[in-house]
Amino acid sequence: MTIVISKPDKNKTRQRRHARVRGKISGTAERPRLNVYRSNKNIYAQVIDDVEGVTLASASTLDSEVSGNNKTEKAASVGEVVAKRAAEKKISDVVFDRGGYLYHGRVQALAEAARENGLKF
């Protein structure tokens, strides 16, 4: 008799966590939502007004302005770029949406760099 132990799908649990958090937080024009999406290769950040359903500013590791030697440094660079692009649109206060990811590593680096460059959350 063999017992099969199934591991939970990490992305599915992250999506459930994200949906739970999204039920509680929402971005407005005065205080939009800074959303983070992390793939294996890249990281993406968007400043979103959920009332209008529009993206006000965005940045990712695919942008030419982003630099770094490893994924964490690139994530910090994305945080810096998205903060500068938000500042150009006169956005200083945001709600941070970590997308169901743990506040650690690349997500933390992006958040701290965005804070250092003028975003308040």
TrEMBL record:
<keyword id="KW-0689">Ribosomal protein</keyword>
<feature type="region of interest" description="Disordered">
    <location>
        <begin position="1"/>
        <end position="22"/>
    </location>
</feature>
<keyword id="KW-0699">rRNA-binding</keyword>
<dbReference type="InterPro" id="IPR005484">
    <property type="entry name" value="Ribosomal_uL18_bac/plant/anim"/>
</dbReference>
<keyword id="KW-0687">Ribonucleoprotein</keyword>
<feature type="compositionally biased region" description="Basic residues">
    <location>
        <begin position="13"/>
        <end position="22"/>
    </location>
</feature>
<comment type="function">
    <text>This is one of the proteins that bind and probably mediate the attachment of the 5S RNA into the large ribosomal subunit, where it forms part of the central protuberance.</text>
</comment>
<keyword id="KW-0694">RNA-binding</keyword>
<dbReference type="GO" id="GO:0006412">
    <property type="term" value="P:translation"/>
</dbReference>
<dbReference type="InterPro" id="IPR057268">
    <property type="entry name" value="Ribosomal_L18"/>
</dbReference>
<comment type="subunit">
    <text>Part of the 50S ribosomal subunit; part of the 5S rRNA/L5/L18/L25 subcomplex. Contacts the 5S and 23S rRNAs.</text>
</comment>
<comment type="similarity">
    <text>Belongs to the universal ribosomal protein uL18 family.</text>
</comment>
<dbReference type="GO" id="GO:0022625">
    <property type="term" value="C:cytosolic large ribosomal subunit"/>
</dbReference>
<dbReference type="InterPro" id="IPR004389">
    <property type="entry name" value="Ribosomal_uL18_bac-type"/>
</dbReference>
<dbReference type="Pfam" id="PF00861">
    <property type="entry name" value="Ribosomal_L18p"/>
</dbReference>
<dbReference type="GO" id="GO:0008097">
    <property type="term" value="F:5S rRNA binding"/>
</dbReference>
<dbReference type="GO" id="GO:0003735">
    <property type="term" value="F:structural constituent of ribosome"/>
</dbReference>
<protein>
    <recommendedName>
        <fullName>Large ribosomal subunit protein uL18</fullName>
    </recommendedName>
</protein>
